[in-house]
Design brief:
Layout (H helix, E strand, L loop, with lengths): L4 H6 L2 H4 L8 H16 L5 H4 L3 H12 L5 H19 L3 E10 L10 E2 L5 E11 L5 E8 L1
Antiparallel strand pairs: 1-3, 2-3, 3-4
C-alpha cells in the first residue's frame, strides 16, 4: 500500500506504535499513550505532559522497565519511515549532530565527558525530506 502525502500528513506518530512488539500488550498500549501525550504537547517534558502523578509514574515505569528494548520501541516507526521513503522514490536525508552540554547540573555527573570538564552527550538526528517538503520522520537517532 502506498500512502499519499495527505494520508501521511493525517497519520499520527502514535498510530505507528500500535504494532510495536514489546512482549506485553500493556507495554504497547503505554507506548501509544505516551506518543499521544507527546503529540498534544511536543514542546513539554513528560512531567509537564502528564495529567496526574499516576500517569507520570507509569511513564517512568515504562522507561525503567528492563523488558522494554529501544529497538522494539523504534522498529515500527523506522519501518513506516523506510516505506514512505521508498514510496517517494527520491528523498534527501538531512543529518545533524548536536552536543547537549550540562555545565552546572547536579545530575550531569552521570553523563559522559565532553571537552574539558563539561558533561553531556551527542545526539545524531536524521530527517528525510521528499519533493513536497513533507516531514517523514526520524530514520535513526544515535546517542
Amino acid at each position: 500500500m502506498h500512502e499519499t502525502d495527505a494520508e501521511v500528513a493525517l497519520s499520527s506518530l502514535s498510530e505507528e506504535f500500535h504494532s510495536a512488539e514489546l512482549g506485553d500488550a500493556r507495554r504497547t498500549r503505554r507506548l501509544v499513550e505516551m506518543a499521544q501525550m507527546a503529540e498534544k504537547a511536543p514542546g513539554l517534558s513528560f512531567p509537564k505532559m502528564a495529567r496526574s502523578e499516576a500517569e507520570l509514574e507509569a511513564v517512568y515505569r515504562f522507561f525503567g522497565n528492563d523488558e522494554v528494548e529501544w529497538e522494539g520501541v523504534f522498529a515500527p516507526h523506522r519501518e513506516r519511515t523506510v516505506q514512505r521513503c521508498h514510496d517517494k522514490g527520491e528523498v534527501l536525508v538531512l543529518h545533524d549532530t548536536t552536543q547537549f552540554r550540562f555545565d552546572t547540573e547536579e545530575n550531569a555527573r552521570e553523563l559522559g565527558l565532553l571537552t574539558g570538564s563539561a558533561r553531556g552527550f551527542f545526539g545524531h538526528f536524521s530527517l528525510r525530506r521528499g519533493q513536497r517538503e513533507l516531514p517523514g520522520g526520524a530514520r535513526r537517532r544515535g546517542l
